[in-house]
Amino acid sequence: MKTADIRNLSLEELQAKIAEEKANYESLKMTHVVSPIGNPIEIRNARKNIARLMTILTEKQKQQ
To answer: CB-based burial of residue 22 (10 Å sphere; 0-12 exposed, 13-18 middle, 19+ buried)?
Structure first.
């Protein structure tokens, strides 16, 4: 998800998206431990997406 798309989300949508991405990240990690996934870069990308979402959430919370 691009930063411009993330900025258009509301606070509630951001929090829901963060929870969804964290669940996806945990799933990827667990799958990779059991049997290596085809593209381990997905784990790094998921972590970066979570950080991107949390950064924008913090920015929006400080504006209010």
So the answer is: middle
Tell me the DSSP string of 11-50.
HHHHHHHHHHHHHHHHHHHHHHHHS--S-THHHHHHHHHH
Under-70 pLDDT residues of the chain: none
pTM listed for this prediction: 0.90
> Rounded to the nearest 10 degrees, what angle do helices 41-63 and 11-34 cross at?
160
* Nearest C-alpha neighbor of 53 from the set 28, 42, 12: 12
Give the integer Cα–Cα distance in Å for 45 and 21.
10
The rounded Cα 42 to chain-centroid distance in angstroms is: 11
